[in-house]
Amino acid sequence: MALAAADIPALITAEDAIIYNTLAASMFIFWEHCITFNEEVDLIWRAKKWGTVNTLFVVMRYMAFSIRIVELVFYTNVFGLIRPSTSQCIAWLRFEAASGYILFFCVEVVLMMRVFAFYGRNRLLLVTLLALFACESAARITILGITMPNIVIVPNPLPPHLHAGACLIVSVPSIFSNYWVPGLIFESILFLLVVYQFIQTKRHAEIGSPHVLIVFVRDGAWAFSLIFAFLLWSALSYELTPVKGDVALTWVFSVLGFCGPRLILNLRSAGVDSVQTIDEDPELEFQREDETGTSGTGYTTASESKYHQHHSLP
Fold this sequence. Notes:
This protein has a two-stranded antiparallel sheet with strand order 1-2. Strands 3-4 form a two-stranded antiparallel ribbon. By secondary structure, it is mainly α. It has eight helices and four strands; from the N terminus they run ααααββαααββα. 67% of the residues lie in helices and 4% in strands. The radius of gyration is 23 Å and the shape is globular. Helix 6 runs antiparallel to helix 7. The chain has helices spanning 8-45, 52-75, 86-118, 123-147, 181-204, 211-237, 242-272, 302-310, and strands spanning 152-155, 167-171, 287-288, 299-300. Mean pLDDT is 79; it is low at 272-314. It starts with 7 loop residues before the first helix and ends with a helix.
């Protein structure tokens, strides 16, 4: 790729933006790993039973970690270790696309499982969600399939002493900005389902909301807000320039790698590790209250239901 002298300052500025944001997003994930590692060991690796939730946690946690490592070493070339060929840059691009898809897929599965548990494991709702999820996944795969062959990525033409990234994305098809749109729609549906069920629970319950329910809805709210905001940022950024899109995308991966595992750890640390749900995973399950002397239709965890059996409502 020929580089005119007049283009060098703008390219250096763009590369600095990508590198600094990649460093910041990476440090965010590494710090998150450090401060939650004890919880991970206690609540995931030492869990009595290993199930779907544990597997999803490990995939999300270490897929995000691997993306950050590869981007630091390869894409930003922050350590100055390599000068890749065009084929190696394309290989990195394919790795990022595949690993990012898997990470987003796992986060959405966790969100679906939470909604499924919140609605008392309603099978009709599950089938509906799976159908919507299949449509969303098919749309994203289609957009990715159209986009990937047409992304132009080359070895960075800047001299090594400028410490620029190893690869440079020259152009991205405009359709790629729509990649996150199906996810935005699907996650909005999941969030609205949680909000609706929470309102119904508060309306009919004769007791205060259990702590686990508060944690469940609180975490769902901030996770949805973060993911929605960063997906929207990424979608809009790719409408502008590939550089702005890359800056947004590197934060999307870190946000997904933060939200997914955190949703699991927070529920486990809230004391629901003894409650069983899909595939007998220690995850949240809500049960209808239907006890003698009560008329509430609120939701409790299994352990809290045992408490109410011995403490009648006033």
